[in-house]
Amino acid sequence: MNKIIDLQIKCSNKEHDSFVQLACFNENCKANRIYCLECLRLGYHSVHPNEQYDLIKLLQFIKQIRQKSDELIKQLSSCIEKINLSFSILSQGLKQKYQLSEDQIQRFDAKQLNQALDQMLKYNETAGKILLDVGNCSKETFIQLNKISTQFELNELIYCDQIEQQKGQAQDLEGQNQLNTKILATSLIELNKYNDAIICIDKALLLLDSNHVKSFYLKAKSLLNLRHYNDAITWADKALLIDSKHIDSLCIKGKICYSPMYQQVLQDRLAIIKKHLLLLNKLCYQIQSMRYQQKQKLYVKQILNRKVFQQVDYQVILIL
Ligand SMILES: [Zn+2]
Ligand SMILES: [Zn+2]
């Protein structure tokens, strides 16, 4: 009871010089929910008089919701625990079936060894299928969880005392959000949900970092898959403007130039290719990583296969 008197919150109506004493629980009410006796006299909530309560009831309600939400988190955790349990069973099964020790093999008879070999010959096929199924399942879950957070604005409403607390974590949070966006957008692209991926990237560019190279690239990739070639080039260029060595963005442009679907006049293509050959030429010397070299080779080979682009820089060819 004392706590309520201690609340001493001024009425948000600036003309009222008193503390709030009542709360309106009507879901559709548009007036201030927390108000003073003066507000009551002015009849702001007179259409639903039975849904007005004092602050004791308000605090009880807040406590009730806190407990219910705790219960919800427990229920959700139990869903994830069930997934964990299924995963343990799956890993155990994989170990039993495919991780045979030499001791075990020595105790096998011909029939058992025959059976083991039979299973192992199908290993690659089985492993591929498991990885694909579990991968899709985990992507779907990841997308659903993020969708729920967005749909119910779970991370957007910040109460005042949490602002201070979050200031210190702001950078970490931004980094984490950036990473989540990247994973989410990549998953959406892999599931062929390109429009959803673009919405997710646009939001991140607006709220997080408006100059994020990876986001530019992912948007270009989504647009490429939607066959919006000119837009894809625009976004790949944005990435290349910040990082001229961003090989994934270069590859997007390479793919577009190479795509028979891209119905631009030949001169346009030639200009794009020439521009990139210069870039690739530089890249071949500057980037040593195998992964990149493989991509460069693939990309340059694609270009060379087009007869119209025979006039290439010979230094590029030398590296192939
Ligand atoms: Zn008031
Ligand atoms: Zn009301």
Walkthrough of the structure:
With 320 residues, this protein is mostly helical. The chain has a domain at 2-62. It is built from 14 helices and three strands. A three-stranded antiparallel β-sheet has the order 2-1-3. Helix 7 crosses helix 9 and helix 8 runs antiparallel to helix 9. The longest helix is centred in the first third of the chain and has 44 residues, at 55-98. The radius of gyration is 30 Å and the shape is flat. The model is unreliable at 263-267, 284-292 and 306-320 (pLDDT under 50). It binds zinc ion (2 copies). One zinc ion (ZN) is lined by residues 24, 26, 29, 31, 45, 48.
Give descriptors for this structure.
Tetratricopeptide repeat protein; mainly alpha; three-stranded antiparallel beta sheet; 14 helices; disordered C terminus; 320 residues; binds zinc ion
